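Type-2 restriction enzyme NaeI
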Amino acid sequence: MLRQCVDDVIMTPKTGRRSYDELEKTEKTYIGTRVEIELRAMLRLPKGKLDTLILGHDVDIKNTMGSNWMIPTEAVDHPCILVAADEVRAACYLGLVVARPDYLTLGQNKDSKKSISALGFANIMWLLLDHPYPPNFWRTVPPDVIERIFAGKSGNQRMANLFREVQREPITRDVVEAVAQQQDFMRRIRSDNGRGTRDQLAREGILLLSGHYDAPLIEALGLPHCTGSEFVSYRPVSQPEANLASQHGIVIEWGAENGQ
């Protein structure tokens, strides 16, 4: 949920931005609102005088992409659900605290909001602490590789570059759309009478597999699990692996040197 909230605001396919740091201040603020709305819906909680109502208690939901939370005056002495995401370390946090005055800093910002103090941190009940969450894909790819991916002039070229450069790693539809930069981005991935990305990579000896259609082959090759909306590419390293792909209805030019 957190990954989707952030990526939906970054909007890489439409804006070309690839990181949280590139967002405007108002967009960063909106992520907090989005997390509040989605968390409330996910937990099936009603709205209250604050963000939600739990067992008759008004509860505030606070989200941060930093290292602390800003607590408004109306939430003082009320329970708070604390949510945080660390984009650099790909870690997330979920905790509960009662925003007692002595759990808050003496200083405040211009909106009279205070941060959680050291004593407050010591009294957070953590449900998730330094828990892994899906990283920003573009943070996992070296800058020179990103440059090569986007060097392609057409959607097919960029897609082929993506799956040639980033193998054995599940790729989401959002990343596919960001690279294709076209409305019919899914078409770029499919075979297209020899012109599609899958066709081109097959001629280079590279498999382009769908988590929806090719799950048995993905598992048989020992590749990472893909959801139904993810894709993974792989260059077989032996004739038996190429034969295995053929048995699943996917033929590649085994031993092809093109693209190596």
